[in-house]
Amino acid sequence: MSNLSAWRIFAALVSGLVFGLGLSLSGMLDPARVRGFLDIAGAWDPSLAFVLGERWRWRRWVISL
Q1: Which residue of 47, 51, 54, 59 could cross-link 15, Cys pair, CB 3.0 to 4.6 Å?
Q2: Is the pTM of this model over 0.85?
Q3: CA dist list (Å): 57 to 29, 42, 51
Q4: Which of 49, 58, 54 lies closest to 15, judged by CA?
Q5: Own/partner long-range contacts of 26-31 (Cβ < 8 Å, ≥24 apart)
Q6: Any idea what the Cα angle at residue 9 is, between residues 62 and 65, rounded to 5°?
Q7: 19 within 8 A of 13, measured Cβ to Cβ
């Protein structure tokens, strides 16, 4: 395994861990909150979108290292 692919695997692992931690800390493991996010026509809960957005920002930062 080359050094570059090891770093890519490490970056993917860190991104996934941070994403999972963010989901856990924000309460997004609660099925009622996820249903609220998916219910666009009703009482939409946008909080999951913020968690997803942070995941992409973190991933971009890690890959730029």
Answers
A1: 59
A2: no
A3: 21, 28, 10
A4: 58
A5: 26/50, 26/51
A6: 25
A7: no
